[in-house]
Amino acid sequence: MVEKIVIIGPASQGLAFRVAELLKATPIATESKVFPDGETYIRIDIEDETILRGKDVIIVQTTGPNAAGNQNQRLMELLMIISAVKRIGPKTLRVVAPYLAYSRQDKAFLKGECIFAEEVCKMIQSAGATEFYAIELHNPDILKVFSIPAYNLDPMEGLSRELKAMHIPDPVVVSPDKGALQRSQDFARYLGDKVPVAVFSKERDKKTGEITMEGDLKLMNKDVIIVDDIIATGGTMAKAIEICKKSGANSIYAIGIHSLLLKNAFFILKKAGTTKIIGTDTIETAAFQISMADVIVNAIKANEKVK
Ligand code: R5P
């Protein structure tokens, strides 16, 4: 069997290490910096390139913003790592970008816009990826632009396992908008038989970004779990929490699969009255973290079996 190597991207140090452990692969670090002119620099921390030649190489690097960098820098680092590995000549080059930068720019909403989510996919492929994995993409349809195998992994089973262990007494799953309904229904199904799902209607002004949300839900004394793919500024989640509180909810768990928690989002959600903010390690931030390492490793192993 060909040796597996996991390259630990600087934005996914915890998750990448967990993936390496579960795969019994050799972890290799990277060294990165930003030059005075703003250009990104990264190298794989090896003295002998034959360590990677002919091997099954897996790069784990998220491309979302966190305290240590913005998404442009993260994306550039990822492309540069892929390019370095490709130059050396691996047998396979799997790229795991658990959160995909620009994934919300998946349509031309206004005249004159580009669909940059698709361009990001094209860049990852042309840099040298032979397989691509993301988790809970905002719009999985963008994967159609890849001609290599590309997967949108489902985090819901793993998430619900952790939530079940919290023994939340009387749960209702709330979807903050119609777009998140399918995701919320999947989550509720994993959580247990007959866990109800309620939905708010949300509008976002395409120019100002301002959110309006409505919903008349029967949540008196219920334990509410709000599930969204992304918590960015926290605006959507805070509005949903506010309505749940007004509807008499007992406790409120805010789940953002990708909890970017920009600026003071954590504070805003705490102030709004959330009991617990739950994220995953697709983005390593202050939210309570549920690891997606097993979701990634199971998918890689399943694809290996098929070959
Ligand atoms: C929107 O369609 C997404 O599913 C999220 O609701 C949104 O990206 C969250 O952004 P923010 O936290 O800034 O409201």
Any overview of this molecule?
With 307 residues, this protein is α/β, with parallel strands linked by helices. It has eight helices and 16 strands. The strands form four sheets. It has a six-stranded parallel beta sheet with strand order 2-1-5-6-7-8, with helices on both faces. β5, α2 and β6 form a beta-alpha-beta unit. Ribose-5-phosphate (R5P) binds next to β13 and α6.
Mean pLDDT: 93
The helix content, as a percent range, equals 25-40%
Strand content: 25-35%
Number of strands: 16
Identify the overall geometry: globular
Number of helices: 8
User: In which order are the strands of the major sheet placed?
Assistant: 2-1-5-6-7-8
Summarize the SSE layout with pairings.
Blueprint: E1 4-8, H1 13-23, E2 26-28, E3 30-34, E4 40-44, E5 56-60, H2 71-88, E6 92-96, H3 116-127, E7 131-135, E8 150-153, H4 156-164, E9 171-175, H5 181-191, E10 197-199, E11 201-204, E12 211-214, E13 223-231, H6 235-246, E14 251-259, H7 265-272, E15 276-280, E16 288-290, H8 293-306
Parallel strand pairs: 1-2, 1-5, 5-6, 6-7, 7-8, 9-10, 9-13, 13-14, 14-15, 15-16
Antiparallel strand pairs: 3-4, 11-12
Helix pairs in contact: 1-8, 2-3, 4-5, 6-7
The structure holds ribose-5-phosphate (R5P).
List keywords for this structure.
8 helices, binds ribose-5-phosphate
Briefly, what is this?
With 307 residues, the protein is of the alpha/beta class.
